[in-house]
Amino acid sequence: MKTIGWKRMATALVILLLIVALAGCGAVQSSPSANSNQNAAQTSQKGKTIKVALIPKAIGIPYFTGAEQGAQSVAAALNIKLTYNGPTTLSASDQVSMINSYVAEGYNVIAVSANDPTSLAPALKAAMKKGVKVITWDSDTVPDARQFFVNQATVDGIGSTLVKVVADHFKGKQTDVAILSSTPSNTNQNQWIDAMKKTIADKYPNLHIKTIQYDQGQPSTGVSATENIVKGFPTVKAIISPDSVGLPAAAEAVEKLGLQGKIYVTGLADPVVMKKYVDDGTVQKYVLWNVLDLGKLTMNVARAVADGTMPTSGTFKVKGLGDFQVNNGQVLLGLPMIFDKAATDKYNF
Amino acid sequence: MKRSKFFANWSYGIIAVFLLEMVILSSVTPKFLSNLLPMTENFMPIGIMALSMTLVIIAGGIDLSIGSVVSFSGVIMGLLWQHGMNIWVAGLLAVLIGGLAGFINGQIIVRTGIQPLIATLATQFIWGSLAVVLSNQGSIYGFPGSFLLLGTGFLYGYLPVQLVIFVVLALLFAYLLNKTVFGRQVLFIGNSESVSAYSGVNVNRVKTWTYVLSGLTAGLSGVIMGSFFASVRGDMGQGLELTVITGCLVGGVNVFGGAGTIVGAAFGVLLLGMLSQGLNFMNVSSQVQAIITGVILILAVAIQQLGTIFARRRKMTGGEGAGKLRGERRARVE
Predict the structure, then answer these.
(1) What is the C-alpha to C-alpha distance for residues A180 and A240, in angstroms, rounded to an integer?
(2) Where are the alpha helices (DSSP H) in A26-154?
(3) Least confident of A117-121, A198-202, B115-119, B215-219
(4) Is B71 exposed, middle or buried (CB count within 10 Å of its CB: 0-12, 13-18, 19+)?
């Protein structure tokens, strides 16, 4: 009873590693040889019904549901059989598993908002190898893992529009501004903040950024960070939060402190989240791209890619939606929208 | 012995349910069968970790840290590779680091007497956060193509490498649990720790080894997932532990320890994994899939409970056909 079988098992593990290593030398291939996908040979699906999988970062989020509504509204007219499904958490591996299923099931186009730029790459490349068209929307992967990226807004577009909202409100008056970002290491946030600084330097010398605080992705942290801004920087008259967690938190804090009308709050967030603060007057205007249009444009790109008519650079004309710039595989939705009360009531995402 | 016999029978039941599921899914979605083998690549790390989790649970423990160990060893592999180490050597070291993490779990549990649930919850936080910090909140990628075959390759053009690894490991673990002294000691400890200790079993050592194995398979899963996704991230293993434990429980591993089979756990994972793939094929949303998984877990464990109670009652009444023989209760020496 005193010896345990671990020596034997260690030997077995070593043998296993050897088997794998040996197998790696010869018999292993990168894809199954029996290819069951019939789409591979066909280059154009023109005039045929195509199956498109629209995969968000996660389901059950108003932002992505808005994109789905947009996509559904044009799918029938484009002769697209649309499936909208994604993981329940922001999981890249769940997305990979779904992509693999959709490829196996014979979908023509996969349109995904990637939870990670690199983790999805092998699955997407394998999909393209089998003749499935791959586009990304909202959040890109590495460029060689997809054919097109439907880019909802450029860094400059977001930065300049956010600053414009504040500048239009204060009309040339000297104004101290605070920024409420999500985390210090968030790439998107930092790029937008840089773009805001650049716009201020170029066009609005009357605006001065006094401090940048962080909500760490938590509403409660955002509320206390805003309180710190108000108490620590009493000259600040405007708060910009380019973060959909930070903006409602800033509005909540300003409301709590009874400073409505004294501190101008704006930023990036969804209409459904902002409705409450717009209705009670804490927030007048805020910025977001039109998510419905993002869904519609993604479907149009899906159709054009399947038809083989999508230009990699130039102008992409969509009937009823407008003309869109395409730069090296990136389709631009255009400048973000400024939402006021009327727009907030109208949109449901 | 009746109890473990019931759990052995449960593994036949789970295989039957699995086969039934295959038949149903293949008839509902025509392309399901032709993609059967490649689809397993999406959940083989879960299966690999379920093998060692079975031993941990049978010995009366639980290991909540494996998801974080997956992330941690994956990130370590990526960092070593980034600093110029050969990817296979880095991968091997990552597996060993997983084993070390398991050893630490085991030592915390046997030396301090902290509940396994609490000890491994704590190390889950530690390894998980370290992984995120070390990876600098981004991903490490660009591994050489030959390494990617570990997670995405096919042996002889149709057998996924991951599946081969899983089957070989499953056979090893089944042998370990059923045919070695170590395996019998694991079961013994799970049935009664104090009796095993009085019988001369080195309880602490056996328990520590179950956690070391758990860490090793988690490390291996980290390497395989790094290959499958062609990148590693600090949060790549997040939440995997619960999927692994669910597979074990559906496969008939008794959460209180003392009973369970490798075959059962392996098919528990296959059952749930294939179901999720099949439901993806049928465009069932992820939320509904999660609900279905919850219902299956409750049903599976409830049936196991009822089965155990029934088996016990049968034993009390003295044999075949519980109701019939109730009157002539025979004394039976077992």
Answers:
(1) 6
(2) 62-75, 92-105, 121-129
(3) A117-121
(4) buried
Give per-residue pLDDT as tens, B137-151: 678 988 998 999 999
Calpha distance B150→A238 (Å, rounded): 54
Confidence (pTM): 0.78
Which residues of chain A from 21 to 50 reach within 8 Å of chain B, CB to CB? 21, 23-24, 27-34, 36
Put simply, whether B236 touches A (Cβ < 8 Å) is yes
Three-state secondary structure call for residue B332: coil
The number of residues making up chain B comes to: 334
What's the pLDDT score for residue A295?
96
Q: Compare CB distances from A4 to B141, B185, B239 and report the shortest one's residue.
A: B185
CA A110 to chain centre: 16
Q: Which of A72, A118, A139, A182 should one mutate to test binding to chain B, selecting the residue with the greatest count of B CBs within 10 A?
A: A118
Q: Looking at chain B, which residue has its C-alpha nearest residue A53?
A: B283
CA distance B226 to B228: 6
Touching check for B30 and chain A: CB below 8 Å?
no
Question: Is the distance from CB of A293 to CB of A321 less than 8 angstroms?
Answer: yes
Backbone angles phi, psi at A236, to 5 degrees: -70, 125
What is the arithmetic mean of pLDDT over B31-55?
92
| Rounded Cα distance, A57 and A207, in Å | 35
- In terms of Cα–Cα distance, which of A248, A181, A249, A169 is closest to A209? A181
A159 contacts: CB under 8 Å, gap ≥ 6: A191, A192, A193, A194, A195, A196, A198, A199, A242
Q: Report how far apart, in Å, the C-alpha atoms of B62 and of each of A120, B148, B241 are.
A: 31, 31, 10
**3-state class (DSSP) for residue A316:** strand
- Inter-chain contact B228–A96, Cβ cutoff 8 Å? yes
Instruction: Decide if B52 contacts B217 (C-beta within 8 A).
Output: yes
Decide: residue A88, CB within 10 A, 0-12 exposed, 13-18 middle, 19+ buried.
middle
pLDDT at A27: 62
User: pLDDT tens across B150-173, in order?
Assistant: 998 888 888 999 999 999 999 999
Closest chain B residue by Cα to residue A185: B137
ipTM of the complex: 0.73
Largest CA distance in chain A: 87
Inter-residue contact B31 to A36 (CB < 8 Å): yes
Mean of all residue pLDDT scores within chain A: 88
C-beta atoms surrounding A92 within 10 Å = 24
CA distance A242 to A266: 8
Helix (H, G, I), strand (E, B) or coil at A324: strand
Burial B229-245 (b: 16+ CB within 10 A, else e): bbbbbbbbbbebbebbb
- Among the listed ranges A305-309, B210-214, B321-325, which one has the minimum average pLDDT value? B321-325
Amino acid at position B104, single letter: I
Amino acid at position A50, single letter: I
* Cβ atoms of A275 and A301 closer than 8 Å: no
Q: Cα dist. B28→A6, B23, B38 in Å?
A: 45, 9, 19
Name residue A212's amino acid: I
Signed CA dihedral, B308, B309, B310, B316: sign only: positive
Dihedral in degrees, nearest 10, Cα atoms B286, B289, B294, B298? 180
Sign, Cα dihedral of B303, B309, B315, B321: negative
Spell out which residues of chain A touch residue B35, defining contact as CB-CB under 8 Å: 36, 104-105
User: Tens digit of pLDDT for each residue in A123-141?
Assistant: 999 999 999 999 999 999 9
- Whole-angstrom distance, CA of residue A63 vs CA of residue A50: 25
Say how far apart CA A207 and CA A166 lie, in whole Å.
9
Contact A16 B139 (CB under 8 A): no
